From TrEMBL:
Its EC number is 3.1.1.-. Hydrolyzes acetyl esters in homogalacturonan regions of pectin. In type I primary cell wall, galacturonic acid residues of pectin can be acetylated at the O-2 and O-3 positions. Decreasing the degree of acetylation of pectin gels in vitro alters their physical properties. It is an enzyme of class 3 (hydrolase). Keywords: Cell wall, Cell wall biogenesis/degradation, Hydrolase, Secreted, Signal. Coiled coil: none annotated. InterPro entries: AB_hydrolase_fold, PAE/NOTUM. It comes from the Eukaryota. This is Pectin acetylesterase. One of its GO terms (cellular component) is plant-type cell wall.
Amino acid sequence: MAKLWALSIVVLVLAAAPGVPAVPITLITSAVDKGAVCMDGTPPAYHMDPGSGAGKKSWIVNLEGGGWCENVTACMYRKGSRLGSSNLMERQLEFRGILSSNPAENPDFYSWNRVMVRYCDGASFAGEGYDAGSRVYFRGQRIFDAVIQHLLSIGMSSADQVLLAGGSAGGLSAILHCDQFGAFFAGRSTTVKCLADAGLFLDAVDVAGGHTLRSYFGGVVATHGVAQTLPRSCTGRLDATSCFFPQNIIGSIKTPTFLLNAAYDTWQIHESLAPDVADHGGAWRACKSSRLACNASQMKVLQAFREQMVGIVQGAFSRSKGNGFFINSCFTHGQSKVPATWNANGSPTIHNKSIAKSVSDWYFGRAEVRAIDCPYPCDHTCHNDI
């Protein structure tokens, strides 16, 4: 195993908010010497709620999401926010859903060591570069390595069970880094698995016949120098932008992985399938505000998008017995860190099984979980955004 970095840290503790315990931020200040920095050069950061009892040797490492920046101008703007500078991040967070310490809300993982890795690089923890003119650092890969090495040094190296998770851009990151994460535990008896929530971004054709998200991801890959950090199993056969799309990676991941995604992912509907730049005349504006306002032609497009996602999941990814999935027919984006959707008492279900139960059954090997919902509007258990 790689030599552990001796990282000094600064912990800032603030008062907890009423009702839900607040988890303080930790800055990994020595990571700066390794060039593992946010876009403005500040140290990477995380929040950790230590495990207890039977969970002391089990860890969830959750990678925060928050979109991307596709060119230097956009990244300069982003570095002046919490998504580009640890100086501007909240000093405490409430952990909910899969990160909750409440056994009623999170029955299978509440006692684990639960970590939220803050997102401040703009490329799903995958960039490697620096723009001298704007003084913007693209060091997502170094941040990922530094944080994991640090967590190993404070106890995760002796873990019995670990789960790398993430939502949205963090879900994409969990996919990109799943096997890298597994490699940190090579030669150990540790159970290592990955969970991507709302991270299955499709290389979809937009309503004008273009590829809006492909163009955007192409900018992210080029600006951040992502090509050099992508899985070689993909870049050996496809271009780098294609390898930033999960559909071209998930079939070759060796570490067991679970995909949690809404078949009608609202972020992708708004920004990839029917973005404003492709919606000439605003024909999709009402539909994007409320699914009830979608006409028959628009619903046909949405159903085709779902079919594309289902086909991808049922392809090479499903051939690995260790993989699992929960693809429900909700209009939402991100379901693992929200009590209303994660909690077994109010979660969307497929075949009467909640999201929390499905993920737990898969992780602990209690049952095979390969759940795909019937098409909209059959599911009446959704918590829909639109």
